[in-house]
Amino acid sequence: MEKTEKKENRYGLLGKNISYSFSQGYFVQKFKDLKLENHSYENFDIPHISELKKLLNQNDLKGLNVTIPYKEQVIPHLNDLDSTARKIGAVNTIKFTSKGLKGYNTDFYGFKKSIEPYLKKHHNKALILGTGGASKAIRYVLEELGIAHSYVSRTKMKNQFLYSELNEDIVKNHRIIINCTPLGTYPKIDEKPSIPYTDITGQHLLFDLIYNPKKTAFLREGEAKGAEICNGLKMLELQAEKAWEIWNSP
After folding, report:
1. Do 205 and 176 touch, CB atoms closer than 8 A?
2. What is the tens place of the pLDDT at every residue in 172-204?
3. Which residues are catalytic?
C-alpha cells in the first residue's frame, strides 16, 4: 500500500509484519467517504514492543489499533484500561486522552456480533485454537454466551488440550471450533491448524479470525464436511467501527 501522508489527525495500526493488514485500507477509505481530509491512518510496524515509547512521543496521534503480537504486551505502556479490556486481559484499541493512554478491547464486540447469527442450540461447546491476545476476547464472549470452551495449544496447561490430544470424541463433542492462530494467513494460504478434520460434521461451526484469504484452508476443510463456516472479515469491520466510535467519544 502506498505511503500515507501525515495529517493533523493521525491514527494507525500497531503490530509486527502487518503489511497485509485490513485496517489501513479500511480507514483510509472511511476518511475519504466522510471527506475527512485532515485524517490519516498509518501502519506502525515495529520489531519489538520496546520501540513503542518513541512512537508514543508523537503528540499528533489520536488513536491506535493493536494487532499481533502486541495485544497483551502493550498493556504496561498504558495509563488506564477500560473495564472490559481489563477483564479480557488484551487491548486492540488505544485512545489518546488528556489523562494519557487508555486501552480498550473491541475484538469481543466484533466477534460476538459476527458469531451470534450462526449459533444453534447444539453449539454449546467450543474449542479455541491458540492462546494469544485475540483468543482472550473470544473466551470472554463464549463465557458471556454461556458456551463451554477449552483452549487448544502446543503447550500443555491446565484446562486445555494439546493438538496431539484431539480425537474423534473431543472434536464431535465441541461443535464450535475457532481459529485464533495466524495459520493460513496470506501468503501461507495452505497452512492450517493441526486438528482431525475427518471428525468434523455438518453440525459443526468453524470460525476463523483470519480474513485474508476469505476462505482459509481451515474453513475449506470444514466446508467439505458440511460444517457452517465464517471468516473474520465482519468481525474486523465491526471492531474497527467500535474503535472509531471510541476515538470520537468525549
Report:
1. yes
2. 999 999 999 999 998 999 999 999 999 999 999
3. 71
